[in-house]
């Protein structure tokens, strides 16, 4: 079955266990795929492992072999011809609402997403379907509805018992706790709140604060009772600082955050998810936003969010890559664009990649199974033509995408 060279002891053990499993259960071996002639970027190191073979068994990375180690016979071989394997990208702020959205995200190289808003808990349902492998979708961390003064009316369709809050809105600690508890009851992974008004509506001012520190703390305590963290949308400094002091784990956007607030974030370990590229989208026709007032707003906000993110990086705030897109059929934002933006604020290509892989996995609490290319972790992988540590633009065009061990895109021969 093998060549007469010495076999890696871990492989001997692997095949012995597989043989006994087949004998006892009557089942066949899981499909093994060998990605040969590969250069690997792990996601947590700048070192490139060159000319190696990566073995995928089932949904997992089984092992990484040196070029002089033989591969098992009778496995599927994909010759990468010197191309680069890296972890699938983690988009930490999306608004995916349909199977089509999820598939488009996946085919762009995103193998994990954190949903930051979906009516009727569509993200929770898709999370479960993706986990069962019945839809082609990234791994999904769900948040359901936004906690904000005027919630999505659909929230009250799901929770008619809270209809008394329709008239008053979610305006004080009691109402905030009630809405937070309702959301938590639907088995979400995160709570999302709006600490300030939105930027993507022409009749709002994104700097306007919504909640004070005590109100934010009430929501954080509600989530903490079930070990669920809070992500706070905040463009303005007053609302953003209230969210930081109230205990939010992450600030989304942060356009107008002051250096004082950023220093507090660095001290407290609060993460920043700046979503710079989506502000670029405000300034352009088409895409997720296409409105003349938003175009004017975007031209003001774009240099400010870039300046803020550069200050955050200089002060040591942990920065996470994300798009804030829904991956809809008309959307033009992709993670490669945000990663390139992060190199523009002073990050090295490695640091920018890490913010979308290993660091993002740590931030989301999923580094036990994804975010890096290591034996035993999920086979969430993308292959690109050139070394992204030298040419970050290569991320725009993934040639091979593997999601939980399944090849969902392969155009290596094109």
Description:
The chain is an alpha/beta fold and 414 residues long. The chain folds into two domains: 9-86 and 374-410, Urease, subunit C, domain 1 (Roll); 89-333, TIM Barrel (Alpha-Beta Barrel). It is built from 14 helices and 16 strands. The strands form three sheets. Strands 1, 2, 3, 4, 5, 14, 15 and 16 form an eight-stranded mixed β-sheet that branches. A five-stranded parallel β-sheet has the order 9-10-11-12-13. It has a three-stranded parallel β-sheet with strand order 6-7-8, sandwiched between helices. Helix 7 (213-224) links the parallel strand 10 (191-194) and strand 11. Helix 12 (335-344) packs across helix 13. The radius of gyration is 23 Å and the shape is globular.
Furnish the topology, listing elements before pairings.
Blueprint lengths: L8 H17 L6 E10 L6 E10 L2 E6 L10 E4 L4 E4 L1 E6 L4 H9 L2 E6 L6 H11 L6 E3 L4 E2 L6 H5 L6 H4 L4 H12 L6 E4 L18 H12 L5 E5 L2 H10 L3 E4 L5 H10 L2 E3 L2 H7 L9 H24 L19 H10 L4 H7 L2 H7 L16 E4 L15 E4 L2 E5 L4
Parallel strand pairs: 1-4, 1-5, 6-7, 7-8, 9-10, 10-11, 11-12, 12-13
Antiparallel strand pairs: 1-2, 2-3, 5-14, 14-15, 15-16
């Amino acid at each position: 079955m093998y060549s007469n060279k010495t076999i890696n002891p871990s492989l001997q053990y692997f095949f012995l266990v597989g043989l006994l499993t087949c004998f006892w259960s009557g089942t066949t071996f899981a499909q093994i795929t060998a990605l040969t002639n590969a250069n690997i970027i792990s996601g947590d190191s700048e070192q490139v492992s060159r000319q190696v073979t990566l073995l995928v068994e089932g949904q997992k990375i089984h092992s990484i072999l040196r070029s002089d180690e033989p591969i098992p016979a009778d496995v599927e071989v994909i010759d990468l011809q010197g191309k680069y394997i890296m972890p699938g990208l983690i988009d930490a702020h999306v608004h995916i609402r349909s199977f089509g959205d999820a598939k488009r995200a996946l085919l762009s190289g995103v193998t994990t997403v954190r949903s930051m808003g979906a009516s009727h808990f569509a993200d929770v349902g898709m999370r479960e379907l993706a986990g069962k492998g019945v839809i082609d979708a990234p791994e999904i961390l769900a948040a359901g509805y936004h906690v904000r003064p005027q919630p999505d009316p659909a929230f009250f369709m799901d929770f008619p018992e809270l209809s008394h809050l329709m008239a008053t809105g979610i305006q004080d600690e009691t109402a905030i706790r009630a809405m937070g508890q309702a959301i938590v009851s639907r088995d979400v992974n995160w709570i999302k709140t709006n600490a300030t008004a939105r930027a993507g509506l022409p009749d709002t001012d994104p700097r306007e604060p919504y909640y004070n520190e005590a109100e934010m703390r009430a929501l954080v305590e509600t989530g903490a009772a079930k070990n669920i963290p809070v992500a706070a949308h905040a463009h303005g400094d007053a609302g953003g600082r209230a969210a930081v002091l109230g205990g939010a784990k992450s600030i989304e956007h942060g356009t107008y955050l002051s250096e004082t607030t950023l220093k507090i974030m660095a001290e407290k370990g609060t993460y920043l998810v700046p979503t710079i590229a989506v502000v670029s989208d405000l300034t352009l026709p088409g895409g997720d936003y296409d409105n003349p007032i938003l175009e004017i707003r975007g031209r003001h906000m774009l240099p400010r969010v870039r300046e803020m993110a550069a200050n955050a990086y200089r002060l040591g705030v942990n920065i996470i890559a994300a798009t804030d897109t829904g991956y809809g059929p008309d959307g033009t934002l992709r993670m490669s664009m945000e990663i390139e933006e992060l190199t523009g604020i002073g990050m090295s290509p490695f640091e920018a990649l890490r913010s979308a892989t290993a660091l993002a996995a740590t931030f989301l609490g999923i580094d036990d199974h994804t975010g890096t290319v290591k034996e035993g972790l999920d086979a969430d992988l993308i292959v690109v033509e050139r070394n992204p540590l030298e040419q970050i633009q290569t991320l725009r065009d993934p040639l091979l995408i593997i999601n939980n061990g399944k090849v969902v895109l392969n155009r290596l021969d094109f």
